[in-house]
C-alpha cells in the first residue's frame, strides 16, 4: 500500500505533459526571439558593413565616411532596443484585449514582417530595410518579453510556478546559443548567406503559429478578466491533471473574490497605488539591475581575455559559444533548483557571487602580465560570473515580477518593469564604452556596488514566494506593512513618554 502511495506521490510531482508543451509553444515564438536576435546580428557584422559601403558607392559614386558607416551600423543594432521599448509598452494592453495566448499569436506578424524586410535588403539594395526590420523584430521581442512570462505564470499550478517561470530565462539563453550556432561560418555565417541568416527569425514565428493554437488561453485570464467559468474549467483540465483542476480553480476564484474590482489597472494607476509600492519598487530595481549588473561588460571583455590567453582569433567564436552553452546550463539548473531552494536564496546568492567575481575580475585584469596563469584566471572569472548570473538574476527576476502582483496589476507591472529593463539595456549599450575608456578594468567596481546593494535589498525586503499562492504573497506584504506601522506607532508613544 505504501509503495502505491509513494508512486502516486511521485507522479503528482511531475507537471502535466500538456502544460509543458504549452510552455514550449509559448517560448519558441516568445523570449527565444529576444535571445536569438541579440546574438544573430554579431556574426554578419563585417558582411553588412561591406554591403552598406557598396550600396553607398552605387548610389553616390563615392566611398562612405567612417563616421556615417559607424552611425548606420549602430542604428541597425540599437534600433532593436527602441522597438523593444515600444513593444513592452503596448504588450500589457494587448494582453488585456486579445488575451495572453492571442497576443503571442498576433505578435508573430511582426517577426515575419521583420524577416521579410531584412531578407530583401540585399537583393533590393536598400540597407534602410535592415533598420526597419530590426525595429520590427525589437517590437516582437518587447511584446514577447512582456506577455510570455504572464502566460507561463498564469497557466502554471502553484507547485510548478517557479520551474515554469524559468522557461523565460531558458528560452532566452537557448535563443542566444542558437543565434551563435547558426552564425558560424560552417552554417549561415558566410558572406553570401547573411540575408538568409537574418531572415531565419521567421522560423520560430511559424513554429509557434503551428503549435500554440492547440493549447488554451490562460485560465486566470478567462475567469478573472473575462468571467468565462466554463472556458477556465476546460483550460485547467487540459493543462493540469484532473486531481489538481479543482484546487487550482478554487485558488483562482479566491483571488477573484479578493479583488476590489476586475478592471486591470493602467501603469499610471499602478504607480499611484500605495498598497503595492514596495512590490513595484522591488521589480523596478530587479529589472534595472538585470541590465546594469555587469553581464554586458563581461561579454565585452570576453574577446579581449580569450585573445590574451593565446586563443587564435578564428577559434574565439567557438569559445564564445561555450559561454552561451554555460549560461543555458545554469538556466536549466536554476529551473531544477528554484522550487526546492526558493527564489530568494537563488537570486540573493547569484548577486553575492557576482559581487565576489567583480572583485576577482578587477584584480586579474589589473595584473594580466604578472604571470601566464592570470589570463586563465580571468577566463575562469568570466565563466563564474555567467554561471552566477544565470543561476540567480537571469532566471528569477521575471518570476518575481509575476508573483509579486495579482491579476489586475500584473500586466501594468510588466509594462513598467519591462520599459525600465529596455531603457537600462539601451543606456548600458550607449554609456558602457565610455565607462570602459574612462575606468578600464576598474569599471567593475561600479558593477560591484550594484550587485552588493541588490544582495542587501533582497535580503532585507524581498520575501520568499516559493509554494505560495498570489493571494498569500500579497497578504505577506500587507502584514509586513502593518507590522512596520505598529513599530512606528510604538516608537512615537515611547518618545512621547520620554
Automatic annotation (TrEMBL):
The lineage of its organism: Eukaryota, Metazoa, Chordata, Craniata, Vertebrata. GO terms for biological process: D-glucose import; dehydroascorbic acid transport. The keyword Flavoprotein does not apply. This is Major facilitator superfamily (MFS) profile domain-containing protein. Residues 23-466 form the Major facilitator superfamily (MFS) profile domain. Its main location: membrane. It is a multi-pass membrane protein. It comes from Eleginops maclovinus (Patagonian blennie). GO terms for molecular function: D-glucose transmembrane transporter activity.
Amino acid at each position: 500500500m505504501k509503495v502505491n502511495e509513494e508512486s502516486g506521490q511521485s507522479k503528482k510531482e511531475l507537471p502535466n505533459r500538456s502544460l509543458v508543451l504549452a510552455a514550449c509553444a509559448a517560448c519558441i515564438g516568445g523570449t527565444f526571439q529576444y535571445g536569438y536576435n541579440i546574438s544573430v546580428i554579431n556574426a554578419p557584422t563585417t558582411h553588412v558593413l561591406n554591403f552598406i559601403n557598396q550600396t553607398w558607392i552605387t548610389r553616390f559614386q563615392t566611398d562612405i565616411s567612417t563616421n556615417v558607416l559607424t552611425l548606420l551600423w549602430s542604428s541597425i543594432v540599437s534600433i532593436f532596443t527602441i522597438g523593444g521599448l515600444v513593444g513592452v509598452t503596448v504588450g500589457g494592453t494587448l494582453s488585456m484585449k486579445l488575451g495572453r495566448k492571442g497576443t503571442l499569436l498576433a505578435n508573430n506578424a511582426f517577426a515575419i514582417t521583420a524577416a521579410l524586410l531584412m531578407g530583401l535588403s540585399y537583393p533590393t539594395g536598400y540597407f534602410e530595410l535592415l533598420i526597419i526590420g530590426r525595429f520590427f523584430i525589437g517590437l516582437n521581442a518587447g511584446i514577447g518579453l512582456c506577455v510570455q512570462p504572464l502566460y507561463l505564470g498564469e497557466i502554471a499550478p502553484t507547485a510548478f510556478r517557479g520551474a515554469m517561470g524559468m522557461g523565460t530565462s531558458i528560452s532566452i539563453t537557448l535563443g542566444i546559443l542558437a543565434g551563435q550556432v547558426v552564425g558560424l561560418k560552417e552554417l549561415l555565417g558566410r558572406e553570401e548567406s547573411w540575408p538568409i541568416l537574418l531572415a531565419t527569425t521567421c522560423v520560430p514565428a511559424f513554429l509557434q503559429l503551428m503549435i500554440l493554437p492547440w493549447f488554451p488561453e490562460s485560465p486566470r485570464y478567462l475567469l478573472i478578466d473575462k468571467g468565462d467559468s466554463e472556458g477556465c474549467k476546460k483550460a485547467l483540465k487540459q493543462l493540469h491533471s484532473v486531481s489538481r483542476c479543482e484546487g487550482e480553480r478554487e485558488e483562482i476564484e479566491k483571488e477573484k473574490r479578493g479583488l476590489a474590482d476586475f478592471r486591470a489597472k493602467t501603469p499610471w494607476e499602478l504607480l499611484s497605488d500605495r498598497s503595492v509600492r514596495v512590490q513595484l519598487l522591488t521589480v523596478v530595481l530587479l529589472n534595472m539591475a538585470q541590465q546594469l549588473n555587469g553581464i554586458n561588460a563581461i561579454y565585452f571583455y570576453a574577446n579581449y581575455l580569450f585573445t590574451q590567453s593565446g586563443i587564435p582569433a578564428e577559434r574565439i567564436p567557438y569559445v564564445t559559444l561555450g559561454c552561451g552553452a554555460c549560461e543555458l546550463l545554469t538556466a536549466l539548473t536554476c529551473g531544477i533548483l528554484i522550487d526546492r531552494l526558493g527564489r530568494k536564496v537563488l537570486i540573493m546568492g547569484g548577486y553575492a557571487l557576482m559581487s565576489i567575481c567583480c572583485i576577482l575580475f578587477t584584480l586579474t585584469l589589473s595584473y594580466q602580465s604578472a604571470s601566464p596563469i592570470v589570463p586563465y584566471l580571468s577566463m575562469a572569472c568570466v565563466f563564474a560570473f555567467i554561471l552566477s548570473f544565470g543561476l540567480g538574476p537571469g532566471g528569477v527576476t521575471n518570476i518575481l515580477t509575476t508573483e509579486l502582483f495579482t491579476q489586475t496589476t500584473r500586466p501594468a507591472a510588466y509594462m513598467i518593469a519591462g520599459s525600465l529593463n529596455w531603457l537600462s539595456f539601451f543606456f548600458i549599450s550607449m554609456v558602457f564604452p565610455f565607462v570602459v575608456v574612462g575606468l578600464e578594468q576598474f569599471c567593475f567596481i561600479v558593477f560591484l556596488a550594484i550587485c552588493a546593494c541588490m544582495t542587501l535589498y533582497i535580503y532585507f525586503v524581498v520575501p520568499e514566494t516559493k509554494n505560495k499562492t498570489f493571494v498569500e504573497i500579497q497578504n505577506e506584504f500587507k502584514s509586513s506593512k502593518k507590522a512596520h506601522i505598529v513599530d512606528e506607532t510604538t516608537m512615537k508613544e515611547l518618545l512621547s513618554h520620554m
